[in-house]
Design goal:
37% helix; single chain; 484 residues; globular; Nucleotidyltransferase, domain 5; alpha/beta
Length: 484
């Protein structure tokens, strides 16, 4: 039986998942790498670290599952979106990759966002974290580098380029550049021209479940891969996660508690509403789209508190492992890196309100949990404004290990949360499923089925009203803080 590899190139590390053709997990490996913050609001990575991590993960899988790796047929890549990896004619990297959570290009984003074509064609606000304003920043601040840019690749596409030598991207990831006509699923000459770019600087586009290119002979030899392994188009991390849990169609979705927080819903058609600050992107499979609201600091908010209190995040989360409490007296705004949905505000920063002498670690953890939950509720309201409805959602991501946090989110959203039985349902699984489709020709609907549900967490009906009132109070804080 052939095997398939899904690689998720995350913000803090790479995860590789080896699966059989029937989707059964064979093994996994991962490797970490750093994020550099040379200035306030900057976030960069060296693409060489991604390659080193990929080599480490593949070598580990060779060691633990040599026979299965010898039967590898295809690789799917998923990864953090929006990053600007700049290559010259020779394919060499010109500067560190500017990441999704980098906000230096807020002025350039505002300039592009004011042009009518960007809403009409891309279907989205031009957020500072998107790729187009990053290139305009490079043009304005690093003109010598900008003049040498032959190709702009998204992070997971650079990994595919290293494997194959082909400069290729998929529609789901490219939709987050502000250069794609998301309805037409193709590069927009008008959007590129207005941001100072040309179509020959863009990678070739394929669907995420379509073969992009074979792994080069030299790379197969270097990595110990069998000849004939192919790489598929892959997906941005959230589209890949949707493939991993089978969220392809209208109303199917998930809440992800990772570094950032995401509330995603599958869409059968293209129906953008840029003013809502909801992202409307191509899905990783043909003829489908998805919408999502994004908050920039979900588990990152808990990590910030852990660093501040010099305690591990897991220990802090463990302080709230009992029944759901009534809303706390401390309010936390999770805007540590600015915010996307619904505010589109790169300058706003987090806040803690209501502190007193009795405030301790437990109260601060509850405030962080509630602030993230309320921010996700704002995302749900934004999705509702576009006509998107969700009757239940799956919970994925590292933060989903906290039962307290999940019950709180279910109560604040007033939606049941389903926990998958198998924990291997994230972006790496979605990437592997895309690889299966590309190599075998299987229809996505037959491969990307929902996982079995381990349990359902329902809203706490005794506290739903109290949290609805607390949410309204939370919503009043942003405009007050913004005015300061």
């Amino acid at each position: 039986m052939k095997t398939y590899l899904g690689i998720d190139l995350g913000t803090s590390g790479l995860r590789a998942l080896l699966v059989a053709e029937n989707g059964t997990v064979i093994g996994a490996a991962q490797a970490a790498y750093p994020v550099e913050n040379p200035h306030s609001g900057w976030s960069e990575q060296d693409p060489a670290d991604w390659i080193a991590a990929c080599k480490t993960a593949i070598a580990e899988l060779h060691q633990t599952h040599p026979e299965q790796m010898a039967r590898l047929a295809a690789i799917g890549t998923a990864g953090q979106m929006h990053g600007a990896t700049l290559l010259d004619d020779a394919g060499d990297v010109l500067r560190p990759c500017i990441l999704w959570n980098d906000t230096r290009s807020s002025a350039e984003a505002a300039k592009l966002d004011a042009l009518p074509d960007f809403h009409a064609l891309s279907g989205n606000i031009v957020f500072p974290g998107f790729t187009a304003p990053k290139l305009l920043w490079v043009k304005n601040n690093e003109p010598d580098i900008f003049a040498r840019v032959a190709t702009v690749l998204l992070p997971k596409d650079y990994l595919s380029f290293w494997l194959t030598g082909a400069r290729v991207s998929d529609m789901s990831d490219s939709a987050g550049t502000s250069w794609l006509d998301v309805g037409a699923r193709d590069w927009s000459a008008a959007l590129l021209e207005q941001s100072g770019m040309a179509q020959d600087q863009m990678p070739r586009l394929v669907e995420g479940s379509e073969v992009a290119a074979p792994v080069s002979t030299a790379r197969c030899a270097e990595l110990g891969l069998p000849d004939g392994v192919v790489v598929v188009g892959g997906a941005g991390d959230n589209a890949a996660a949707a493939c991993g849990i089978g969220a392809l169609d209208e109303g199917q979705g998930f809440v992800s508690l990772g570094t950032s927080g995401v509330l995603l819903a599958g869409k059968s058609g293209y129906a953008p509403l840029p003013a809502s600050a909801v992202h409307t992107f191509c899905h990783a499979v043909p003829n489908r789209w998805y919408q999502m609201g994004v908050i920039l600091s979900a588990t990152d908010s808990l990590n910030w508190l852990a660093r501040t209190l010099k305690t591990r995040a897991g220990e802090l989360a463990g302080l709230l492992d009992g029944p759901l409490n009534a809303p706390g007296s401390v309010t936390f705004l999770p805007y540590l890196s600015g915010e996307r949905t619904p505010h589109n505000d790169s300058a706003i920063r987090g806040a803690l309100l209501g502190l007193d002498h009795a405030t301790g670690d437990r109260e601060l953890v509850q405030a962080v949990f509630e602030g993230v939950a309320f921010a996700l509720r704002e995302n749900l309201d934004a999705l509702h404004s576009t006509g998107t409805e969700l009757s239940s959602i799956m919970a994925i991501g590292g933060g989903s290990r906290s039962n307290y946090w999940l019950e709180l989110i279910a109560t604040v959203l007033d939606l049941p949360l389903d926990l998958p039985e198998d924990g291997e349902n994230g972006a790496a699984m979605g990437a592997a499923r895309l690889a299966i489709c590309g190599a075998t020709g299987a229809a996505p609907e037959t491969v990307m089925t929902p996982p079995r549900i381990n349990r359902r967490i329902s809203p706490n009906s005794d506290l739903t009203k109290a949290y609805a009132q607390a949410y309204q109070a939370y919503r009043a804080v942003y405009p007050a803080i913004k005015a300061l």
